[in-house]
Amino acid sequence: MEKDRKVTEINDLGEFGLIDVLSKFARNNEKSTVLGIGDDAALVNHNGFETVVTTDLLLEGIHFDLIYTPLKHLGYKAVVVNLSDIYAMMAEPKQITVSLGISSKFSVEAIETIYSGIEKACAFYEVDLIGGDTSASLTGLCISVTALGVVEKGKAVKRNTAKVGDLICVSGDLGAAYLGLQILEREKQIFLDNKNIQPELEKNKYLIERILKPEARRDVVRQLKAANVIPTAMIDISDGLSSEVMHLCTQSKTGCVIYDENIPINPEAISTAVQFNIDPSVTALNGGEDYELLFTINKEDLSKIESIFDVKVIGNMIAENEGMNLVTQSGKTYPLTAQGWTSFRDVNKA
Amino acid sequence: MEKDRKVTEINDLGEFGLIDVLSKFARNNEKSTVLGIGDDAALVNHNGFETVVTTDLLLEGIHFDLIYTPLKHLGYKAVVVNLSDIYAMMAEPKQITVSLGISSKFSVEAIETIYSGIEKACAFYEVDLIGGDTSASLTGLCISVTALGVVEKGKAVKRNTAKVGDLICVSGDLGAAYLGLQILEREKQIFLDNKNIQPELEKNKYLIERILKPEARRDVVRQLKAANVIPTAMIDISDGLSSEVMHLCTQSKTGCVIYDENIPINPEAISTAVQFNIDPSVTALNGGEDYELLFTINKEDLSKIESIFDVKVIGNMIAENEGMNLVTQSGKTYPLTAQGWTSFRDVNKA
């Protein structure tokens, strides 16, 4: 830590001053951005396309703990979780708005750090920050992001259009973010008990990056488009595989079979789950915050899907009256249960 | 108060249950709404028009005090403050998204009450609620609204396009919301000191309605369009007249003269200001939360503006190097100062 680093109090700057400071992080490069920050509202021109809109709210103490969440990562993640929703429609994100509620303990530099993460995500995913709101907060930090995307008319992939017989696919691997969070929570406790002990995070770098700096699967969406595979239904995995599969089934009026042995889990996640005495499959099914894509395809597209990097078939859609099922590695069938990872239950636990 | 009224705990319902409960308040009637609540993102089709996007964050303890803010009014206002920004572009709002962070003290019925206010505003202003996010909050209530509107390509009225010689106009009256807030704060103190004393609010109904249930000036925008008046610049008044005039001038690179005697102030506001020992003009200039429209017109449009209900000319744009000036009723000229009403200063005061 640099001791002499300049710290400007937000109160000295005022809201308009703060907006000026933050405006410089919004570089509008997108052709369809007509007007960005600096007026009552932002203008987006989407001639002949459909505008896709999504929004997510991140609250201190619920979605993140500032003890172990670097502010730059937090800004990055706040954008990514929204973009993930846009990609889950097979759409391309184009613009975001960001509202921040900031407690007085934050310096302007701290807020700039959050925005530098936002800017980094915008640059990587090629989206424009076109507006927002900033306010004092009497309590914790609050980040609300809305993302706009475009998709060719009628081409958005929804949740309610899977058919019986479709194959269920998932990108990446699951459960790692949940385990990363468990490690951070453990190290936090150790640190709070003895502040001389430095946290051991290096050996679980992958898991920790999955919780602190997730990525949206633009690459998968683009590969699917390039391979001419149009998923029959799609959702992103924010609350755990189980819960998201059940959303697809319920909305599409189908049942499903998921084969536990096919669920992709990273080796680091498996060994860490064992260390925490948790079944690795449970972290994949109920952990959440993976931001992978879960989608269904017509089984005739199987050969096309096999050439796509980082996508695995984990089951198939069956008739609604056959239920939503998990087949374990020993061959037993259990009904899927959506434990999910809802922020309301988190509070319950606290 | 009905003692036996059923109260459902949010924790019993879970997030998905809550979304189901809230979804029924979203009736998508707008032709351009392709897909609303229930998927990863919402779809809006705005063929040949520009999409207008704005967002506002309302935080408990900063923007509202639940001791005297009815939840239904709060939901209504959270929508209106966003629509006001859309109208201030001379655009028509079409859709909103709403994210709520809710502390565990809230019952489902309380949240439904907030949404009933949101629904009421949506119905009155003919906009669709198309998405959002709900989350637990460890601290206060948090409401983030994003509004989308449409405007004919190139027809949005911005802040930076006023010209020297233009007339400065304002709708409605100013300062009433600020005074309404002062009354609510006074009655809150009286109530906290002696809980047997019922607040006296009836005689200041107008002022209290201005702070608790403001309206966006759709009527003024529609009258301007009907009269074929295209303002040269426009902004809505959320931080006080002074601050907003200075925004128009700074962004348009002009100066201004505002005539104090022309600033519209309601008689109830004048008498209440006197009672509080505040100059009524100060409440108009710096009070904020009026959600009136401030705009400039070419002086050739003066005769057209005179037929428009509830709009008054309060000054004119002059050269930038002549400064931003207020002429008092005694004829003295002072430089305008933007005290505004920023939420950061509110924290400072607390």
Low-confidence stretches of chain A: 340-350
| Helix and strand sequence of chain A | HEEEHEHEEEHHHEHEHHEHEEEH
Helix content of chain A: 25-40%
Main sheet makeup of chain A: 7 strands, mixed
Using the 3D structure, state the CATH architecture of the largest domain in chain A: Alpha-Beta Complex
According to DSSP, the number of beta strands of chain A is 13
User: What's the CATH H-level homologous superfamily of the largest domain in chain A?
Assistant: PurM-like C-terminal domain
**Quick check: average pLDDT of chain A?**
86
Widest β-sheet, arrangement of strands of chain A: 8-10-7-11-9-12-13
Report the largest inter-chain contact: A-B, 80 and 83 residues
Please tell me how large the radius of gyration of chain A is.
Answer: 21 Å
DSSP strand content of chain A = 15-25%
Verbal overview:
The structure is a homodimer of 350-residue chains. Chain A has 2 domains: 10-152, 60s Ribosomal Protein L30, Chain: A, CATH 3.30.1330.10; 167-345, Alpha-Beta Complex (Phosphoribosyl-aminoimidazole Synthetase, Chain A, domain 2), CATH 3.90.650. Chain A has 11 helices and 13 strands. Chain A has helices spanning 10-23, 71-87, 108-125, 176-193, 205-212, 218-226, 241-252, 267-275, 280-286, 302-306, 343-349, and strands at 33-35, 42-45, 49-59, 92-102, 128-136, 142-152, 167-171, 233-237, 254-259, 292-297, 311-319, 324-327, 333-335. The first copy, chain A, has a 7-stranded mixed beta sheet, sandwiched between helices. In chain A, strands 3-6-4-5 form a 4-stranded mixed beta sheet. A two-stranded antiparallel sheet of chain A has the order 1-2. In chain A, a hairpin with a 6-residue loop joins strand 1 (33-35) and strand 2 (42-45). The longest helix of chain A has 18 residues, at 108-125. The interface between A and B is large, with 80 and 83 residues. Strand 2 of chain A pairs antiparallel with strand 3 (49-59) of chain B, so a sheet runs across the interface.
